[in-house]
Amino acid sequence: MAGRVFWKGYLKLSLVTCAVTMTPATSDGEKLKFHTLNRKTGHRVVSRYVDAVTGKAVKDDDEARGFARDENSYVLLEDDELEAVALESTRTIDIEMFVPGDSIGWIWRDTPHYLLPADQVGAEAFAVIRAAMTATGTVGIARLVLARRERAVMLEPRGTGIVIWSLRYGDEVRDAAEYFDTIDAGKPAPKLMTLVRSLIKERTKPWNPDMVQDPVQDRLLKIIAAKKKGRKRPAPAKTPEPASGNVISILDALKKSIASEKSR
Asked: Is 234 in contact with 226 (CB distance < 8 Å)?
């Protein structure tokens, strides 16, 4: 079933414009959600803002936003000051530039959305923009207001549609070199590489979405179903104990792993 339309607007490249819609590419709607209850009464618990010093509930009209100046004082911002810097969504994804498709690393990609033409009138313009990006191996860069924040976004052609990735801000991405440069870059022994490659080959399978199912949710659903019927909850799954002691020989461990894979 197609997801709900999250955003409506226009895709624009110079003088070429078409109406488009955007839908989240992922969903957590199937995830279990729990409420916090009062164990004694079975009633739901309601969250309220309270004054950290007096402990009294704060009325909606008295709530304000502030920036911590030091431990005990804040710079108070009024609603009109916040509105003055708020960004107005123009409802237009104006592609400002193009970059090679493989030049934006995975770590910059944040949240994906599906972009598609809103009607048949704009389908041709949408198709030619998408096809041209595919032919040139490029992705588009634009800006878009999402959740009241302006985000840089990447437009990536995918099949007959376009995937829009919101991109992380520059100060959100840590430099991998600060972490990975401390790792010894020495080459593993050829014999070890041969054995690990063999182990990888034994475990290589075609991708299937079932490989990333949530086993915890499956167990929770079984517990809930048992409780609904008044039965005892299922026994918890046994987690195998890790092997005790240190691995003395990587070579021996790999040989045993490969033998185990083949027998399985």
From this structure: yes
Kind plus residue range of the DSSP H or E element containing 74 = strand 74-77
Residue 169: how many CA atoms within 13 Å on its side-chain side? 5
Residue ranges of domains in the chain: 7-27+87-172, 187-239+246-263
36-87 pLDDT, tens digit per residue, is 898 889 899 888 889 888 988 898 888 888 888 887 788 888 877 776 665 5
- For 91-188, list the strands marked E by DSSP: 92-94, 97-100, 109-117, 138-146, 149-158, 161-167
- 164 CB contacts (<8 Å, ≥6 apart)? 22, 93, 112, 113, 114, 115, 144, 153, 154, 155, 156
Assigned architecture for domain 7-27+87-172? Beta Barrel (2.40)
Q: At what angle do helices 190-203 and 250-263 cross, to 10 degrees?
A: 20
Model pTM score:
0.70
Q: How far apart are CA 122 and CA 71, in angstroms?
A: 55
